[in-house]
Design a protein that fits this description.
The complex is a heterodimer of chains A (about 270) and B (about 260).
Chain A (H helix, E strand, L loop, with lengths): L2 E7 L3 E8 L2 E9 L4 H13 L9 E7 L11 E2 L2 H12 L5 E5 L4 E6 L5 E7 L7 H11 L3 H9 L12 H14 L3 H21 L7 E4 L6 H11 L13 H17 L6
Parallel strand pairs in A: 1-4, 4-5, 6-9
Antiparallel strand pairs in A: 1-2, 2-3, 6-7, 7-8
Helix pairs in contact in A: 2-8, 3-5, 4-6, 4-7, 6-7
Chain B lengths: L2 E6 L3 E8 L2 E9 L4 H16 L9 E4 L15 H12 L5 E5 L4 E6 L5 E7 L7 H11 L3 H10 L11 H13 L6 H21 L7 E4 L6 H11 L3 E2 L7 H12 L3
Helix pairs in contact in B: 2-8, 3-5, 3-6, 4-6, 4-7, 6-7
The chains are: A alpha/beta (about 270), B alpha/beta (about 260).
């Protein structure tokens, strides 16, 4: 059976996914390096090698993400908004609203039952609500990006923040630390401020069931809990990993495009 | 009888003692953890310069982001009205005031009596504020004053399109690492230029009319002031001590108010 690959070169993370027969054969998540072409190759190899595949085995490759134009072995590139919607809806057919929280941007997307984007809005002007914000905060508090979500969940009294500006939040967090405010309470406040901001972004599209969160921040349990609290909706998270929504969507597109070129209708 | 104005800013606290249009004493201090103690200290120093005591004052007006923490005087005025009054005292024909402070930027349209006609500003984001420049100075490993001078030597603005300080840092880093690297002075000109674009973009929503003054701590930065003139396309007046303008306005209001 033919293999289809999707490569999603994001601002911080590079993701690859290979599908065969509509099933995920392999996927990979790495860091985006300074050289896009190198990142593209290393992402492909990270995805293909463990399952003994090479570029020549791929029937069609679609690239997406910020670095999508610099993937030399891609047959085509498609915007990450379309790919995220496609991937999330492919995995979770009932999904209609997607919050994609990436390294340097945050998107609210509505998708229909065919995996087509019907509405979207994006923040890429401000680091608030993106992975960069959380990285800045984690480093101020001396924690890793993986630790902050769980620590935020242990808070008993969140400290209210009225800013989502990473620069202001950083200096406020430092002042609070000096005063002895528990890290958990600082983090709970910041997660709350970011969740409010994402909620406002979502209000500008239609908030419909089912709701999912994709992108790197979807692995932050503190943030997922806050989003649930704000929306009053339980986010359904995609398996095997919500960070590969874009790469999976690109692979699904690769299959559709190839089928269309064969004169077959997409399935 | 003299009066005093105090501007409790996020980064610095300023005090001015004024009588009959003449500044008798002034003081600028780093804002203290305790806003009230810091404000009193600034006032005392300004009074000492003037050779006066607090009892000699007709009144004290306090303004700035930290004014609500002050209890030793009940007279509080908004930063906008103090900026307008202060700028009007220095430049009677002023119609637009650009105030770029540590953690906020504000644009005020002023009428011929020194009253506020319209205003726009923001204080929820570091873009277009002194903190933005401070983080850039750290990144460029240069003191702010040196950066200001280097900016004047830049030939072209390096492209810094991000408004967000965090994202702009990455743009600056990529200029430094580019092959060949973007000239340092151009990068710095680009940093100041991006701030000017942000603030002037805000100002255009209420309109910019001459005469225009540039005040606040960041106004002392000659590199930034130059980019502001390029962006506004008009001559900007920078008063000798631009960070004192709001305190000066507060003192003037204290003088003018009926007891």
């Amino acid at each position: 059976m033919p293999y289809f690959a999707g490569i999603d070169i994001g601002s911080r993370g590079a993701k690859g996914c290979i599908i065969e027969d509509g099933k995920i054969v392999s996927y990979f998540i790495g860091d985006t390096g300074p050289e896009s072409v190198k990142t593209a190759w290393y992402t492909f190899e990270g995805t293909a090698k463990p399952v003994g595949l090479e570029v020549k085995d791929m029937t069609y490759v679609v690239a997406t993400g910020y670095g999508r134009v610099l993937v030399p072995f891609a047959n085509e590139n498609i915007s990450e908004i379309s790919c995220h919607a496609k991937g999330a809806q492919y995995c979770l057919p009932s999904v209609r609203t997607i919050l994609d929280m990436g390294g340097q941007d945050c998107k609210a997307i509505n998708v229909n039952e065919k995996g087509v984007v019907t509405k979207f809005i994006m923040n890429d002007k401000c680091a608030g609500g993106t992975g960069r914000f959380l990285e800045v905060i984690a480093s101020v508090l001396g924690l890793t990006i993986e630790q902050i979500g769980p620590v935020a969940l242990t808070s008993t009294e969140k400290f209210p923040f009225n800013t989502v500006c990473a620069v202001f939040a950083k200096s406020e967090a430092l002042t609070l630390l000096k005063k002895g405010t528990p890290k958990a309470d600082i983090l709970a406040g910041l997660h709350d401020a970011i969740a409010t901001r994402c909620h406002n972004l979502l209000k500008r599209v239609n908030i419909e069931k089912d709701f999912t969160i994709t992108g790197g921040i979807s692995k932050n349990t503190g943030m997922v809990a806050k989003m649930k609290e704000k929306l009053g909706l339980e986010p359904v998270l995609m398996e095997p990993d919500p960070q590969i929504a874009g790469a999976l969507g690109a692979a699904v597109f690769a299959r559709e495009r190839w089928l269309a070129k064969q004169g077959q209708p997409p399935q | 009888m003299p009066a005093a104005g105090i501007d409790v800013g996020t980064l610095t606290t300023k005090a001015v003692v004024l009588d009959d249009g003449r500044v008798l004493g002034k003081c600028i201090l780093r804002s203290a953890e305790n806003a009230e103690a810091g404000a009193l200290k600034a006032l005392e120093e300004a009074l000492a310069q003037a050779g006066l005591k607090i009892e000699d004052l007709k009144g004290i007006v306090v303004t700035g982001a930290g004014r609500k923490f002050i209890t030793f005087t009940q007279k509080q005025k908004t930063l906008l009205s103090c900026l307008a009054k202060g700028a009007n005292l220095l430049v009677p024909t002023v119609r637009t005031v650009f105030d770029v402070g540590g953690e906020s930027s504000t644009v005020v349209r002023v009428n011929e009596r020194g009253g506020v006609e319209d205003s726009i500003g923001h204080d929820r984001c570091a873009s277009g504020t002194g903190v933005f420049l401070e983080s850039m100075a750290k990144l460029m490993q240069m003191p702010l004053a040196e950066m200001a001078k280097a900016s004047l030597l830049g030939e072209h603005r390096a492209e810094v399109t991000s408004m967000c300080a965090i994202f702009a840092e990455q743009e600056v880093i990529s200029h430094v690492h580019r092959q060949p690297p973007t000239p340092k002075n151009d990068i710095i000109k680009g940093i100041h230029g991006s701030m000017a674009v942000r603030i002037v973009g805000l100002a255009k929503r209420i309109g910019i009319k001459p005469e225009a003054v540039l005040v606040g701590g960041v106004a002392q930065n000659v590199g930034f002031a130059r980019e502001m003139e390029i962006e506004t396309k008009i001559k900007l007046i920078v008063p000798p001590e631009p960070q004192l303008v709001a305190a000066l306005g507060a003192a003037r209001i204290a003088l003018e108010e009926k007891v």
